[in-house]
Amino acid sequence: MRRLLAIALSLTLLFSIGGMAWAEGPGQHKNAVTELYSTEGTYTDDVGNIETYSYHVPQLNADSADAKEINQEISDHFAYYVEAQLENMEGGYSLWSWHTSWHSYWHGSKLFLLIETDLNGGLHEIGAYGYDFNNNCRVTGDMVLRELGLTEADYLMNLREKVELMFEDMFSSSPMKDAFYDELLERTLNELSMEQPMFIDGAGQIETIVKIYVPAGAGYQFYLVTPYAYG
Prior knowledge:
The chain is built from 4 helices and 11 strands; from the N terminus they run ββββαββββαααβββ. The longest helix is centred in the middle third of the chain and has 27 residues.
């Protein structure tokens, strides 16, 4: 089972002082998160484009093997975008990513980080990482479902149904539907599994980050799907 990049919701406070942020956790879990990058401002490139940027990349403040692995994954994926923009600023070049942000959520002793980056062309990247501070381990999708009393089969069935409805809403009226609809829907559904990041939102519902294949641009986009949403 691939480790979960996930997010769950409980009560949390996010503080920012002097450019450094951290997640205020319950009890002994103070200062659970620091930032690898914390910078924002306004930049003018060599051709006169004025751009506003804000880059915040979190890191777990823990020393276990799982925590170090998560931190490395965050650095490899999200710090890359920030570092590329900082290099562009040094050279006077235009930016192609303007904001990287994160949110922290607690569920008991489990901390979940949701990270988002916007990219040129209206694209975006989303990642979520779960860590249990009491047990010093990564949180998996199986662990989330067990905690909420859900089965994998039921979860995947509901996820598939909601993705099909979303896909239909997005593309059923497209004049080019016959050229791509069935193929892209099949590709999207075939990749649904427990590997997709899942989290509990503010309404207490599971949400899942799903790659949906589209007929233009990069060929896919990431969307949030709520498998158990009703009404």
